[in-house]
Amino acid sequence: MIIFDYYQPDERVRDLIGSYYATTVPEPLEDVMRAEIANVRFILEGKLHSDMSGEMRSFVPGDAILCGPTFRWSTIRFERGTRLVGAAITPLGWARMFGVPAEEHADNWVALKDVAPAKVHGLIDRILDPASDGTRVALADVMFAALDNPDAKVNHDFLDIVTDWLTDPEPNELEDLLAAIDLSPRQVERLSKLYFGCAPKKLHRKFRALHSANRLSWDALEDWREAATTAYYDQSHFIREFKEFNGRTPSEFIKGAHLLVRQTLNERRQIEHHSPYSLVG
User: Residues 20, 128: one domain?
Assistant: First the structure.
């Protein structure tokens, strides 16, 4: 069993943070994490292990980590009594709070204090403090507001167009994106790596597979073919792409051997989401 609670960020940071979440795992559990947007995670109790970076690493109470956007599924193992809190970071939030290309941290993690200025280190410690139970969301709002650089150079038109392209559940192809943006393919690729962590073709494949999993979960579909779109060449193409980003085949997903992925998808709907990324990605 996993217990999830989701919280809305304050208006000051809601364009930067998709949602906050608290996760409690009473008993040992191993499962898969699907590809996701960037996150900040604070380990409060217990211990978790993840091979998100390509090798299994362990995280313990007191660890605060920035996880870049991921483009493959990973294994995660929780030890008994693990508790953590986290924040889903939007592409705009990444650009304004961390100021480095998302590609540099894609499929990887870094200690939050290594990329955050010293002025917020005390807030990081307070969020990790057991005495902060009940106030962590408010502390996180303050910390992320302090990290925000509203004067950062950001191509908002590009972000808005790509966001619509990615979060629309209806099939959209790369050609549709290029037709909507008055930029060269080379410029689109550079900006995609800067804000999203990879080239647009792979980004499109990722979100297409995530949308398919969302349909299976939210619409309680019993036939994976109802979640596939005409964008896939054939059945084997759909199954291969689905598993690469979701960690399970469509049939495995439907049968239920995916507690973490499916439960997070359903529990995310506890709250209203200002950002479509925290619901979809």
Answer: yes
